[in-house]
Amino acid sequence: MQRVFSGIQPTGNIHIGNYLGAIRNWVAMQHQYESLFCIVDYHAITVEYEPQLLHERVMDLAATLIASGLDPEQCTLFVQSSVPEHAELTWLLTCITSIGALERMTQFKDKAERQKSGVFAGLMNYPVLMASDILIYKAELVPVGDDQIQHLELTREIARRFNTLFGEILPEPQPILTKAARIMALNDPTSKMSKSIEGSYIALDDDDDTIRKKIRRAVTDPGPQGGEMGPGVKNLFTLLEAFAAPEIVEQFRSDYANESLRYSDLKQTLGDAIVEKIAPIRERKAEILAKPDQLMELLNAGGAKARKIARENMVEIREAMGFKMPVL
Question: Which of 3, 156, 169, 291 is spaced 20 to 30 Å from 177 by Cα?
Answer without folding.
Answer: 169
